């Protein structure tokens, strides 16, 4: 893929370390005393304790796409406007170590990007050529990751609107598309509207919208027990 085209069309300018084409690990000194070390620690904690992340990691493994921490996650410095991204060209999740400073934020970013990775695994998304595929995955990620949880929206001073969750999902999906694709807002809105109902109602692999960590724990429990009935027949 032409590097200039990547930067112009696909949002790679938001992730400057992606432009080198190399995924180098820092020195021991850097890993111990920089954002990178903190990012790695928070990532490990998210993978081990977040019910959202644990469900998605298990679902991807069941779909034949096992995730390896050192291969499929990369902590990098990014543009100040983003917290993470999914690089379909390398099947890597980018975590913006300079912009993620709290564990709760890391958990949401990991979950959001794992939903994109799950879609990449199960649906063979055409990220670079089909805007509807991109919009669908962004809708799903905003809907299922906790991005639009009531507590997060209150913290943003966004609440009190009818069907607020749906509007939050729509708005966040729209902003994500505009951040990484050179299209007009009107065109992006049209694409989101066209796929919204179908993609909003696709709750795989959670089976429900996990509005809170408690919901995510129930979804994870149900996922873990999904084959227990048939196994006992």
TrEMBL record:
<keyword id="KW-0482">Metalloprotease</keyword>
<comment type="similarity">
    <text>Belongs to the peptidase M76 family.</text>
</comment>
<dbReference type="Pfam" id="PF09768">
    <property type="entry name" value="Peptidase_M76"/>
</dbReference>
<keyword id="KW-0479">Metal-binding</keyword>
<dbReference type="GO" id="GO:0034982">
    <property type="term" value="P:mitochondrial protein processing"/>
</dbReference>
<dbReference type="GO" id="GO:0033615">
    <property type="term" value="P:mitochondrial proton-transporting ATP synthase complex assembly"/>
</dbReference>
<keyword id="KW-0378">Hydrolase</keyword>
<dbReference type="GO" id="GO:0005739">
    <property type="term" value="C:mitochondrion"/>
</dbReference>
<protein>
    <recommendedName>
        <fullName>Mitochondrial inner membrane protease ATP23</fullName>
        <ecNumber>3.4.24.-</ecNumber>
    </recommendedName>
</protein>
<dbReference type="GO" id="GO:0004222">
    <property type="term" value="F:metalloendopeptidase activity"/>
</dbReference>
<keyword id="KW-0645">Protease</keyword>
<dbReference type="InterPro" id="IPR019165">
    <property type="entry name" value="Peptidase_M76_ATP23"/>
</dbReference>
<dbReference type="GO" id="GO:0046872">
    <property type="term" value="F:metal ion binding"/>
</dbReference>
């Amino acid at each position: 893929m032409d590097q200039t085209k990547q930067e112009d069309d696909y949002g790679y300018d938001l992730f400057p370390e992606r432009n080198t084409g190399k995924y180098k690990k820092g020195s021991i000194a850097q890993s111990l005393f920089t954002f990178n070390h903190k990012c790695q620690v928070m990532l490990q904690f998210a993978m081990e304790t977040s019910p959202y992340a644990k469900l998605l990691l298990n679902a991807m493994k069941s779909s034949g796409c096992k995730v390896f921490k050192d291969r499929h996650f990369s902590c990098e410095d990014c543009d100040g406007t983003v917290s993470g991204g999914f690089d379909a060209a390398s099947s890597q999740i980018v975590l913006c170590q300079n912009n993620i400073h709290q564990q709760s934020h890391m958990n949401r970013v990991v979950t959001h990007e794992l939903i994109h990775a799950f879609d990449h695994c199960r649906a063979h998304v055409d990220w670079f050529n089909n805007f509807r595929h991109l919009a669908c995955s962004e809708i799903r990620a905003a809907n299922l990751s906790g991005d639009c949880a009531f507590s997060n929206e209150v913290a943003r001073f966004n609440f009190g609107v009818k069907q607020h969750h749906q509007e939050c999902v729509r708005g966040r999906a729209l902003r994500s598309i505009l951040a990484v694709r050179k299209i007009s807002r009107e065109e992006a809105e049209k694409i989101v509207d066209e796929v919204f109902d179908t993609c909003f109602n696709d709750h795989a692999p959670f089976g429900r919208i996990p509005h809170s960590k408690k919901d995510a724990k129930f979804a994870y429990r149900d996922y873990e027990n999904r084959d227990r009935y048939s196994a006992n027949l």
